[in-house]
Amino acid sequence: MKKKLTNLILITAAFLGAWTVNANPDIEKGEKLFQMCAACHGQSGEGSQNLNAPASAGQSQWYVKQQLNNFRASIRGSHPEDSYGRQMIPMATILKDEQAVMDVSSFIETLPLTTPKTTLTADPSSGKASYGICASCHGTSGEGIAALNAPRLSHQHDWYIVRQLKNFKQGIRGSHAKDHYGSQMRSMALILASDKQIDEVAAYISTLE
Questions:
Q1: Greatest Cα pair distance in the chain
Q2: Can you list the domains of the chain with their CATH numbers?
Q3: pLDDT tens column, 34-63
Q4: Does residue 22 register a pLDDT over 70?
Q5: Can you tell me whether residue 73 is helix, strand or coil?
Q6: Nearest to 91 by CA among 164, 100, 55
Q7: Calculated CA dihedral for residues 7, 10, 14, 16, nearest 10 degrees
């Protein structure tokens, strides 16, 4: 009986500990941790094409947390051709525990959305029809839908959207056995038959507010 009670206490403590991590992010600590991210992603999370860093500002906390944990576990970035993803693995592993991941991802969510410059010459209107498939998960305005594990797409760099769609198509991203949501995106990306279609849908996404 005593052993069962001890086990119950340990299980309860573990549960409460996990709940505390998830319920109480420390935004100030997250801001400090973000300084290592800012070296590539910018002080305002605006991203940088020169550094191949996407915009992170305003991205949903749950998604940033998910991706950081994927990098930490080498679920993302482990493909030999994902050179930029591989660079994120050591950066993500600097976050020592789940609390640190929660803190920095919660801070990133507080950053105001930025509006990246357009780099594509593709016609956004041609990409609107193709985006209809994306909208079913990511929202008509690219706002993201947490219930469907679909991140925000709006206010993201068009060149980054293009790269990730191509990565999904080629299996550079989303092919890891534990990347369940990434594998879903692979099948969706394959619907875009050509680079032209990819450019067009990315161009349309860049118009979303």
A1: 71
A2: 25-114 (1.10.760.10), 115-209 (1.10.760.10)
A3: 999 999 999 999 999 999 999 999 999 999
A4: no
A5: coil
A6: 100
A7: 110
